[in-house]
Structure formats: C-alpha cells, structure tokens
C-alpha cells in the first residue's frame, strides 16, 4: 500500500508537469516562431515480488511477478514543424519557410539561433543602421558578421529576395546589393537545442553543430519571406484535448492515493 502511495504520487507530479507544459503552449499561441512542446514520460524501476521459481521443487512459472514503482518525466520535446506564415505590416519582418534558423549575436558575444524574424533597424555609433532583433541583438550574415545598412536607408527601402540576399533601394529606386545574405543554419536534431529567453536557441551536443545552408549544396535550402512572420505551430484544439487527458490522469492518481489511504486506515483498525 505504501508502494501504491508513492507510485500514484509520482504520477501526480508527472501529470502536473504535463499540465504546466500545455499551459506554456497555450500562453505562447500568439508568440512568433514559438514551437509547441510535449512532456514525455518513462517508468521507474520495477520491484520483483516473485521470481519464476517459487516452489521447493524448483518448478518454473511462465513469468515472474514484478510491480512498477511509478513514473517520471523523461523529457520535454519541442516540435519544430513549420508554423503558419502571417502577413506583417513591418518592412523588416522576415519568415523562414523551411528548416533553417536565423543567427544572432547575443549580449555575451556568442551566436544563438531563432525562428523569430521581427527585426528592426538600429542606428549605430558610426551612423550606420544594423538589422537587429526586438531585443537589440545583431542579425548575422553567412560570414557571421552583422548586417549593416548605410545610415540614410529607411526600412521601406530594405530589399531581400527569397534566397536571403540583402540589399536596398537608393533614392532613385535602383537596387543596391550589400553583398550579404542571411545566415541560415540547420541542425541534425533541432529538438536538442537549448531554449533561452526571447525565443533564442543555443546549440548543444544533442542538437549537433550548426550547418550553414550557404556552405552545403546538398542541403535543402530554406526560403526567406519578406513581409511575413512565422506564427506559433501550437494547435489549440489538440492542446485542449491533451489538457483534459492530463487532468483525468491526475485525478485517477489522486483516487489511487485516496484508496491506498483508506486501505491503510482499515489495516490500522484491525487491532481494535
């Protein structure tokens, strides 16, 4: 009975994590570039109650008797399925149609990756304008350098084609190339990326090293869409169903604890 208490308690803890994960998905249903997450579970150790040989003369049973000791959260996995492309009024809004990630330089000087493309033009100390994230982190090109425009270029004159090549229009509306292309990178296991704040992702051993699309002709290139933002891939209907399932599992585990407690109470009253 004590085993049942601990097993059911582990189930309640696990389902609470599942509810927390679902709540986070629903909270970010309107967050650009957000990828839905799912809690996954694994069983704990099994305790052997009876071996296959339990009689004095060594007769064999078909199976032994083992009982599980509960569950725990194995991982919270992100689903990097393509989100919907939403039209934006911003002239510096970009969406990725494919498996690539934008590269940005963090405040600590390290390179991070993101699917959020709501960029801005920020005036630098030398008078030029750099393409940055909403938090002010510089967006990098294929060479790992910040994307910089002349100081007189406004957002309405920024030009980017579907291959990510960047330029601008001069006052006479003539195209001027910057000889720069968005640095787009792919990972062998995107689910292994470490989640940071502000939609940034950090490469890990589990995710593999970032592979630049510009340097790998065998890789399917991503497409850059100017004037669009990638929406969250959270499906509200699916999340609500998952929430009901997790809530019912939580209730069943609480019922198991209540039943175990009643049995313990009855056992304690046998002496009276």
Secondary structure elements and their pairing?
Layout: H1 2-27, E1 37-43, E2 46-50, E3 65-68, E4 71-78, E5 85-87, E6 94-97, E7 101-105, E8 111-114, E9 120-123, E10 129-132, E11 148-149, E12 158-160, E13 165-169, E14 175-181, E15 184-186, E16 194-195, E17 201-202, E18 211-212, E19 223-226, E20 228-230, H2 236-268
Antiparallel strand pairs: 1-4, 2-3, 5-20, 6-19, 7-8, 7-15, 9-10, 10-11, 12-13, 13-14, 15-18, 16-17
- Total domains, how many? 2
Question: What global shape is seen?
Answer: elongated
pLDDT < 50 stretches: none
Topology pattern, helix = H, strand = E:
HEEEEEEEEEEEEEEEEEEEEH
The proportion of residues forming helix, as a percent range, comes to 10-25%
Decide which structural class fits the backbone: alpha+beta
Rg over CA atoms:
27 Å
β-strand amount: 25-35%
Strand order, largest beta sheet: 8-7-15-18
Q: Can you describe this structure?
A:
It contains two helices and 20 strands. It has 272 residues and is of the alpha+beta class. The protein folds into two domains: 2-80 and 234-268, no CATH class; 85-230, no CATH class. A hairpin with a 5-residue loop joins strand 16 (194-195) and strand 17 (201-202).
Key phrases:
4-stranded antiparallel β-sheet; 22% helix; 3-stranded antiparallel β-sheet; 272 residues; 2 helices; alpha+beta
């Amino acid at each position: 009975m004590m085993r049942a208490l601990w097993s059911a308690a582990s189930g309640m803890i696990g389902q609470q994590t599942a509810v927390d994960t679902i709540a986070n998905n629903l909270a970010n249903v309107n967050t650009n570039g957000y990828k839905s997450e799912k809690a996954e579970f694994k069983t704990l150790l099994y305790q052997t109650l009876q071996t296959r040989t339990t009689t004095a003369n060594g007769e064999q049973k078909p199976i032994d008797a083992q009982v599980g000791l509960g569950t725990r959260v194995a991982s919270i996995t992100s689903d990097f399925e393509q989100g919907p492309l939403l039209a934006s009024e911003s002239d510096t809004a970009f969406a990725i149609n494919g498996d690539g990630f934008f590269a940005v330089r963090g405040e600590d000087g390290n390179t991070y990756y993101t699917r959020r493309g709501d960029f801005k033009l920020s005036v630098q100390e030398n008078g030029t304008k750099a393409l940055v994230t909403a938090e002010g982190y510089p967006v990098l090109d294929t060479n790992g350098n910040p994307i910089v425009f002349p100081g007189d270029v406004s957002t309405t004159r920024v030009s980017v084609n579907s291959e990510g090549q960047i330029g601008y229009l001069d006052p006479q509306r003539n195209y001027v190339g910057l000889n720069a292309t968005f640095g787009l990178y792919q990972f062998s296991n995107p689910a292994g990326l470490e989640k940071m704040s502000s939609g940034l992702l950090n490469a890990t051993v589990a995710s593999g090293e970032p592979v630049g699309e510009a340097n790998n002709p065998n890789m399917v290139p991503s497409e850059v869409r100017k004037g669009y933002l990638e929406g969250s891939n959270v499906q509200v209907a699916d999340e609500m169903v998952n929430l009901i399932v997790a809530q019912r599992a939580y209730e069943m585990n609480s019922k198991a604890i209540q039943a175990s407690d009643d049995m313990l109470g009855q056992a304690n009253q046998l002496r009276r």
